[in-house]
Write a structure and sequence with these properties.
three-stranded antiparallel sheet
C-alpha cells in the first residue's frame, strides 16, 4: 500500500470530533450549537474547541443571532470548508480502496 495518500489527509478535519462536525454540516446547511452538541454527544467545551479550530481554518462560518431575546450560535460550512471536506473524502476513499486491494 502506498502510504502517501494517508499522509496527505487534512489533519484539521481528520480528528474524530471535527470529522463529525464537518459531516453534520455537510448534510445540513446550518446547525445550532445545541443541535451539534446533542447530535455528536459532545461537551460544551469539547465542541467549542473543535468549532474554534475549524473556524480558524476557514472551514466553517459562525452565525450569531438573537431569537426571542436569547442568543443563538449556528454554524455552516464555508465554500473553503466544502472544498476541503470533498477533497478529504476523495482522499479517504482512495486510502480505503488501496487498503482493501492489499487485503485480497
Amino acid at each position: 500500500m502506498n502510504p502517501q495518500p494517508l499522509l496527505q489527509l487534512d489533519r484539521v478535519i481528520h480528528e474524530k470530533g471535527r470529522l463529525g462536525i464537518m459531516s453534520a454540516l455537510a448534510a445540513s446547511p446550518r446547525m445550532s450549537f445545541r443541535e451539534l452538541r446533542e447530535l455528536l454527544e459532545m461537551t460544551d467545551g469539547n465542541l467549542t474547541a473543535h468549532v474554534r479550530t475549524l473556524h480558524e481554518a476557514g472551514y466553517i462560518a459562525v452565525i450569531k443571532e438573537v431569537d426571542a431575546g436569547r442568543p443563538i450560535t449556528s454554524y455552516s460550512l464555508t465554500q473553503t470548508g466544502r472544498t476541503a471536506f470533498s477533497g478529504y473524502l476523495k482522499l479517504l476513499a482512495q486510502v480505503i480502496h488501496e487498503a482493501s486491494q492489499s487485503m485480497t
